[in-house]
Amino acid sequence: MSTLKGRNVLKLLDFTSEEIQYLLEEALKLKQNPLSNVLHGKTLAMIFEKSSTRTRVSFEVGMLQLGGHALALSSKELQLGRGETIADTARVLSRYVDAILLRTTDHNRVKELAEYATVPVINGLCDLYHPCQALADLLTIYELKGKFSGVKVVYVGDGNNVAHSLMVGCAKVGAHFTIAAPEGYEPNESILKQAKEIAGETGGKVELIHNPDEAVQDADIIYTDVWVSMGQEEETEARMKAFKPFQVNQSLLAKAKRDASFLHCLPAARGLEVTDEVMDGSQSAVFLQAENRLHAQKAILKEIMA
Ligand code: CP
Ligand code: NVA
């Protein structure tokens, strides 16, 4: 495997199965030995055009634990918010920092930042992908189930950024991924097609269906995300209606394997896509999953920056 040094992390589709497995192994090692100085003197600039708790804090703490430093910047405070271009921002920040993270709307903004930056760019969530989340999700699934092959991951809900990255991630590691989405809220066709092709090569399986009860049969993992993502607030009414039958509650969870685990990228809208009973129940691993953002992202930072 060639080195990951200098690589952008825009989407998991850009990484081979071997590279993803390597990052997961590295994450497990960092979880055992969290502190080092491998990024001594290195700085990560993080630009947030949307809210964040986990991404912001885990990257900042991760940089610190690796001996480096992170700057959390809101686009509103940057000149970016007053119209300075992404390209100019990329060229300027590249002269100060060693990597740039962007959380934004359109995937093209992350691509443009990467095109003009001379340092690695990390996608901290955009409308299409959330690769850092998916890497932490894979780490969590591996810790819970001890393998990927034959593990059935069922995502119930919106075919959104989190679903796309998880789907690609599961395909890359040879897991079985089923998404149950309402009509009109299916995942992006091109990403679904690519994920199916990858699964064909890794021994995994990717499928889309519309019935949540059917989807969760034999599930090892049940995963959901919010019905209304950041920036979709105007669609709230229509989404509430479409997603109502897709709530992860105790009755849906009971249709999965007895030892199935529940995952959610968080933040959760409790009482909507998931009930308190499931979120706080014995099968929920959502806080382990949130913790794993830190370990997985440290693996990324170490490999692309050190
Ligand atoms: N899951 C996730 O990305 O959380 P934040 O929006 O809090 O960063
Ligand atoms: N799909 C959600 C994920 C938040 C971490 C959103 O984009 O708002």
Automatic annotation (TrEMBL):
Its EC number is 2.1.3.3. One of its GO terms (biological process) is L-arginine biosynthetic process via ornithine. Carbamoyl phosphate binds at S52, T53, R54, T55, Q79, R103, H130, P131, C132, Q133, C265, L266, R293. GO terms for molecular function: amino acid binding; ornithine carbamoyltransferase activity. L-ornithine binds at N161, D225, S229, M230. The keyword Transferase applies. Keywords: Cytoplasm, Transferase. Residues 150-302 form the Aspartate/ornithine carbamoyltransferase Asp/Orn-binding domain. It comes from the Bacteria. Pathway: Amino-acid biosynthesis; L-arginine biosynthesis; L-arginine from L-ornithine and carbamoyl phosphate: step 1/3. Residues 7-143 form the Aspartate/ornithine carbamoyltransferase carbamoyl-P binding domain. GO terms for cellular component: cytoplasm. It catalyses: carbamoyl phosphate + L-ornithine = L-citrulline + phosphate + H(+). Belongs to the aspartate/ornithine carbamoyltransferase superfamily. OTCase family. Reversibly catalyzes the transfer of the carbamoyl group from carbamoyl phosphate (CP) to the N(epsilon) atom of ornithine (ORN) to produce L-citrulline. This is Ornithine carbamoyltransferase. It comes from Aeribacillus pallidus.
